[in-house]
Amino acid sequence: MTMRVLAVDPGVTTGLAHYDGTEPPRAEQHPALDALIVAALIVRDGVDLVASEAFVISAGTLRKSRDGQTSIEVIGALRWLCHEHGVRFELQPAAEALKLVTNDKLRALGWWCQGDHARDASRHLAYAMARHGAIDRARLLTRNMGTI
């Protein structure tokens, strides 16, 4: 059975990547409210997991970004949406996803896409699927991935 996953890069511009067994996954980016509407429809139609980039509040993020409040609100709305539909919700560290799933690896998967936020959502999608065994994590760790 195919693992169905929605991965999210939350923010003022929110990236979404959705895997339902078709290749490549759908990846897109929208203003936050529009992205939440799309996410609600995807969750309603059925996913096994929603994986979101974690947003960690620190002195540095407060100085560098006005995006923090929107990111936190998107994450909260996603958490509630998952609770309402009985879907597992996980937060993932951005640095870990970026370390494991580089742009070259997204290209090798055939999951590289236009738009920084859509691409980051695709990265979180691959990371979540690797964590749950839907993608062979050992192959993501190698330089020459071959086909996945």
Keyphrases for this structure?
148 residues, alpha/beta, 19% strand, globular
Average residue pLDDT: 90
For the record, give the distance between the C-alpha atoms at the N and C termini, rounded to a whole number.
16 Å
* Subunit arrangement of the protein: single chain
Number of beta-strand segments: 5
Q: Which bin fits the share of residues in helices? A: 40-55%
Largest sheet: number of strands, sense, barrel closure: 5 strands, mixed
Rg computed from alpha carbons, rounded to a whole number of angstroms: 14 Å
Explain how this protein is built:
The protein is of the alpha/beta class and 148 residues long. Helix content is 49%, strand content 19%. The protein is built from 7 helices and 5 strands. The protein has a 5-stranded mixed β-sheet with strand order 3-2-1-4-5. The chain starts with a strand and ends in a 7-residue tail after the last helix. The mean pLDDT is 90.
